[in-house]
Amino acid sequence: QAVPPANSTLTSGSGSFSATLKTAGSQTLTAADTVSSATSGLSNAIAVAPGPVDAAHSTATVPNGTVGLATTLTIQASDAFGNPRKVGGDVFTVAVSGANTAAPAPTDNGNGSYTAVYTPTAPGTDHVDIRQAGGGLSGNVFSSLVALAAADATHSKVVAAPTDIGDDNDT
């Protein structure tokens, strides 16, 4: 993606122009004469890095959880054009409300991604509010359905009330 300059007249065959490159990575610009298509030029490769973090274009993955087990949230910082950032240093906040409450501090993975972990203690629906500089992420507020853990026979016991299970001839 790019925002090209308007058509301009050259002076003595040269001119100076600016363009806004929106897509991170190696980019090139092509200039062409609108009168004579045989006249054109191609720039050298231009390295375009992602811009500063933009909350509205950053994303998160919020899985469903299980009571007593860690739930890991993943955040991907992106710039205003949706380019994933490749470096860390951004500050995000996470607030969990609903069936559980928590405020896990995100860990900066140093590559534009962040993780936050919390362990639900009650079943139900958690609402996960993830913000950067006060702005909510794309898709915010997220939901996480928390289920009870499956029963484990090694940690379960059966309790039965005393009862008479004899035959009907008992007197």
Description:
The chain is mainly beta and 171 residues long. Helices cover 0% and strands 35% of the residues. The strands form 5 sheets. Strands 8, 10, 13, 14 and 15 form a 5-stranded mixed β-sheet that branches. Strands 7-9-12-11 form a 4-stranded antiparallel β-sheet, with no helix packed on it. The protein starts with a strand and ends in a 24-residue tail after the last strand.
Helix content: under 10%
Unreliably modeled segments: none
Query: Could you tell me the strand content as a percent range?
Result: 25-35%
Order of helices and strands: EEEEEEEEEEEEEEE
Q: Estimate the mean pLDDT confidence.
A: 87
**What's the total helix number?**
0
Give the N-terminus to C-terminus distance in angstroms.
Answer: 92 Å
Describe the sheet with the most strands. 5 strands, mixed
Structural class: mainly beta
Principal-axis shape equals rod-shaped
Number of strands: 15
Radius of gyration: 29 Å
How would you summarize this macromolecular structure in one to three sentences?
With 171 residues, the protein is mostly beta strands. Helix content is 0%, strand content 35%.
SSE layout:
Layout: E1 2-3, E2 20-21, E3 25-27, E4 30-32, E5 40-42, E6 46-48, E7 59-61, E8 65-66, E9 71-76, E10 92-98, E11 107-108, E12 113-118, E13 124-132, E14 135-136, E15 142-147
What labels describe this entry?
single chain, 171 residues, mainly beta, four-stranded antiparallel beta sheet, 35% strand
